[in-house]
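Hi R.,

Here's the chain you asked about this morning:
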Amino acid sequence: MSTATQKTESPAPSPADGPPSVGTLLLQGLRSNMRQYGMLVALALIIVIFQIWSDDILLRPLNVTNLVQQNGYILILAIGMMIVIIAGHIDLSVGSLVAFIGAAAGVMMIKHDLPWGLAVVLCLLLGAVAGAWQGFWIAYIGIPSFIVTLAGMLAFRGGTQILLDGQSLSPFPDGFEKMSTGFIPEMGPYTQYHNPTMVIGLVVCAAAVWQEWRARQQRTAYELDVVPLGLFFVKCAAIVAAVMAFTMTLSSWHGAPYGLLILAVLFVLFSFVMRNTVVGRHVYALGGNQPAAKLSGVRDKRVTFMVFVNMGVLAALAGLVFAARLGSATPSAGLNFELEAIAAAFIGGASASGGVGTVLGAIIGGLVLGVLNNGMSLVGIGTDYQQVIKGLVLLAAVGFDVWNKRKVGS
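And here is the predicted structure, written out as tokens:
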């Protein structure tokens, strides 16, 4: 170990120091997760402010369901964009790809009467091909992702116009539209709440508490600091309370929409991949320090290629969900979706230099934007002022990230 490295390390506490206090552990936890916790607090404050300002409309069951359905496709894009940014790249083409896939779905289902299930599979494959095309130029030819995806943005938007000939196509089959607008069917005896949604909420609570306990046990096994047991129980109780409040709100209307299930599956899948698999660690390593990652055996070209293939598939899925919600394929679909996804990723904790970010952070960032959009519309703030406010929020989030890095480095 070099002398420079030794100087940056803090001395290990001696046995005489005793175990760290509760306050010390809390401060350590806040510092290590400052951005994510900060956005959670910001999201909670935004919800409280607009709940009061809108005369309790924001958290009504109908509006909460609308929030989920209106922002589902942006959250799907935000997950993929977070992974792209963690890898040290950017994708400007996702909004145009959303429109292109929606147009392709319209041509397949409406013009050529393909079964909607087959059309969905073909559209996802088409998204993978689009992502592979861009990933090839970025990973193997070495053209910067900004240029490649800017070219893709123009090409996919033009392809949308060609497929639709400047006209909208509608209607989509009912089964396809339910993918975005439908709800889980009711089952079991009559109660005041939607039974399947309540069961799903209880399962999510159990899984979240188990994951927290498992993480605590792993830290204990490696002799790392953990919060006192009492605070751990408080944290678990807060998670359960939040999940059950959300579940009961949805259950008092029509239950969980299918779009929420799609998003939940993606969240669980990509959280596991990024946190617990070799591929996920390679993505973080590549974005954090590409030369060092290559020396460590990371196949940087393959990882970059697969990151953009994944982004293409998620953009295709978002395009299908958006088209299903809209009920038609339109040339103007997906406008500024790439900016919303990028903003969600940065607000949720992504770093412009790569190597930092979480899937949960992408969801939180997307929800911050979604609640802002919905809340400002409810209280009658014009779209022009909404854009200004969202721009300031994005600037504040990235500025906080830069400030936090400088503070840690000092």
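One quick note: Residues 31 and 408 are 9 Å apart (CA to CA).

Cheers,
M.
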